[in-house]
Write a structure and sequence with these properties.
Blueprint: E1 35-43, E2 55-63, E3 74-83, H1 90-96, E4 98-99, E5 103-107, H2 111-125, E6 137-141, H3 156-165, E7 183-184, E8 187-188, E9 190-198, E10 201-210, H4 224-228, H5 238-242, E11 249-258, H6 264-280, E12 288-297, H7 326-346, E13 350-351, E14 357-358, H8 363-369
Parallel strand pairs: 5-6, 11-12
Antiparallel strand pairs: 1-2, 2-5, 3-4, 3-12, 7-8, 9-10, 10-11, 13-14
Helix pairs in contact: 2-3, 6-7
């Protein structure tokens, strides 16, 4: 079951990260055209019965532009902080510098169904007389502490619902979508988002946060994880459930969006800076952590990803001068840090498989520890 989740975000508790100015929704959807959709799956209680639950999982879909990206792709880049995870489609991004599909976020064992369903969404809405191929980007984090992860409860219909219902505006956070069953710094984690406006451009970040250790959690330089101390009943993590010594594990996917006119090599640099936001809250990319980051920019209108005699020989694109890119780095670091914190304070306490309970990070208690 899910206990009542607080709707309040970090800033609602008076916790301000950095000095940058957020966009109107303080969300990735502040980047014009970016849309987010969730399908959340919560059912059942009690002992784990593989294939029957309890279910605490879901899928999140991020659409960088309205319509199909095959016809209107965006430049993209990515970065791996630690690779005990999956982010599909990155070879195509490395080869072409383009993102040509929506992005999906889910649990580790549902990557395949999300990948196939995102292709199906394109096939459903395209003129099938046109030749095309699809290599969707799907990221994952492992929710097997709370969820029947081997039960394969995410279906193509759930993915298509998130895809079709993706919208701009405020983004639901915490125990939603792909973040439903996630744990962050041994508190309840999940989906979080934030944004920054700088130099006439917007940077938005969305995270699926399932990483970190409580003793390392740091906010505004204060070691809040150590000050709050452990729960009376410690949260088991993956190695304990699997019968091996705890090594510190978990994963985080960070999606960075901007409307700045950036080229792929610049977006790789932006994606790298997400790791600094993870680190500022105490994440270090442990051995069993999948810390994978992707950045895309909507600031150029690109030719369709087609081939054949009808494709123009060349096109003109715009590039932000590198001398002006540092404020965007600042924005990525701050928005990533705040997005993780928003995931923590918006996710309510959750009880999942085998009656394991993961407690929320209480925003009031957190604020009382800060300057």
């Amino acid at each position: 079951m899910t206990h009542d989740a607080p709707a309040r975000r970090a800033r609602d508790f008076g916790i301000v990260i950095g000095t940058g100015r957020p966009g109107p929704h303080n969300a990735i959807t502040d980047v014009p055209g970016v849309m987010v959709g969730h399908t959340t799956l919560i059912s059942g209680d009690g002992p784990l019965r593989t294939g029957h639950g309890p279910v605490r999982t879901g899928v999140t879909v991020i659409r960088p532009r309205p319509g199909h990206l095959w016809q209107n792709p965006v430049f993209a880049g990515y970065h791996r902080l630690n690779g005990a995870g999956e982010l599909t489609g990155t070879h195509w991004i490395a080869e072409t510098g383009r993102l040509t599909t929506a992005l999906g976020l889910t649990n580790t064992h549902s990557v395949g169904v999300v990948h196939d369903a995102l292709i199906a969404a394109e096939v459903r809405d395209r003129d099938l007389s046109e030749a095309f191929f699809s290599l969707p980007v799907v990221g994952e984090t492992w929710d097997g502490v709370l969820n029947d992860v081997n039960g394969f409860h995410v279906t193509a219909a759930h993915v298509l619902r998130a895809y079709d219902e993706a919208a701009g505006g405020p983004v639901p956070e915490g125990n939603v979508g792909g973040g439903t069953g996630m744990i962050c710094h041994d508190f309840k984690g999940g989906v979080g988002t934030a944004s920054r406006v700088t130099g006439g451009h917007t940077v938005g970040v969305l995270v699926q946060a399932n990483h970190g250790r409580r003793e390392r959690l740091t906010v505004q330089g204060v070691p809040v994880g150590r000050l709050l101390g452990p729960d009376q009943v410690p949260v088991p993590r993956a190695p304990e459930i699997l019968g091996t010594p705890r090594q510190g594990e978990g994963s985080i996917i960070v999606v960075v969006a901007t409307d700045a006119p950036l080229l792929p090599h610049q977006l790789t640099r932006l994606a790298q800076r997400a790791g600094l936001g993870v680190a500022r809250l105490g994440g270090v990319g442990e051995h069993l952590s999948g810390d994978l980051f992707i950045a895309f920019a909507t600031g150029n209108a690109l030719q369709p990803t087609d081939f054949g005699p009808g494709v123009p020989l060349s096109q003109i694109v715009t590039m932000l001068a590198d001398a002006h890119i540092t404020p965007l780095f600042d924005a990525v670091v701050e928005a990533t840090e705040e997005a993780i914190l928003n995931a923590l304070v918006t996710a309510g306490t959750m009880t999942g498989r085998d009656d394991i309970t993961v407690h929320a990070l209480d925003g009031h208690r957190l604020r009382a520890l800060l300057p």
